[in-house]
Design goal:
By secondary structure, the protein is an alpha/beta fold. It has 2 domains: 3-129, Rossmann fold; 138-233, Arc Repressor Mutant, subunit A, CATH 1.10.10. The chain is 37% helix and 21% strand. The strands form 3 sheets. A 5-stranded parallel sheet has the order 2-1-3-4-5, sandwiched between helices. Strands 6-7-8-9 form a 4-stranded antiparallel sheet, with helices on one face. Helix 6 packs across helix 7 (183-191) and helix 6 (164-174) crosses helix 8 (201-213). The longest helix has 17 residues, at 113-129. The two termini are 32 Å apart.
Length: 238
């Protein structure tokens, strides 16, 4: 069965070219000409939900970064759909911000269709490998292993010292890898309670978790800050 993709792109000519090329490679591409149409499709995708979203950064109605944020905030499983972001901009910060907002990869325009296809296949392959719960309910992200039953965390086999609450916060993030979460959502997922107004203690906990699991806590690769929103746990880390 062909894999379904959603392309949110206002350039009709580019969308037709991509749809035809990917169609010849075994994909079915649903095209949305603006952000609202793309988000509407995700709310009601029909019988075949998209396996990946190709998202243009510059859209006429909403910024692609905002679309990315909204996708990651969806209340259903489509929140975890991988996103390949397209942009005509050359600013490296666009790539950084896009990845922090939950995009899985980034391809500048103009691009070769063969490269787009290769990137899509690579993302879907990684997605298939994904986070693999194993015996003892282990979450694995490269060298990071989280044993939920034993409540232990190791990086490259070395134990990480976390408090019980910090462990709960880490699991709450790891179980939702790739999804941008607000501070309230993280705390509610970890302990079932909302964050008190002006309470910034979660940022302190995140700093300590980073110190335990990151190679360089000042340049984190596992837990990323999304300014003005919250945090996202990276799917691919090592």
């Amino acid at each position: 069965m062909s894999q379904a993709l959603l392309m949110i792109e206002d350039d009709e000519r580019l969308a037709r070219m991509v749809s035809e090329y990917l169609g010849n490679s075994g994909f079915v591409v649903h095209h949305a000409g603006n952000a609202q149409a793309g988000l509407a499709h995700l709310q009601d995708p029909g019988p075949q939900a998209p396996q990946l979203i190709i998202l243009d950064l510059m859209l006429p109605d909403l910024d692609g970064l905002e679309v990315c944020r909204r996708v990651r905030a969806l209340p259903n499983s489509l929140a975890h759909t991988p996103i390949l972001m397209l942009t005509a901009k050359g600013d490296p910060m666009d790539r950084v911000i896009g990845l922090e907002m939950g995009a899985d990869d980034y391809l500048p325009k103009p691009f070769e269709p063969r490269e787009l296809l290769a990137r899509i296949r690579a993302i879907l392959r990684r997605q298939g490998e994904g986070v693999k719960p194993a015996e003892g309910q282990t979450l694995r992200f490269g060298s990071l292993e989280i044993e939920r039953d034993a409540r232990t965390v190791t990086v490259a086999g070395q134990p990480c010292e976390l408090t019980s609450y910090q462990f709960d916060l880490l699991v709450a993030l790891a179980e939702r890898a790739g999804r941008v979460l607000t501070r309230d959502q993280i705390m509610e997922a970890a302990r079932g309670r909302e964050l008190d107004a002006f309470d910034r203690s979660i940022d302190v906990h995140m700093g300590r978790i980073r110190a335990a699991i990151e190679t360089d806590s000042k340049s984190p690769k596992r837990i990323l800050t999304v300014r003005g929103v919250g945090y996202v746990f990276a799917r691919q880390q090592d």
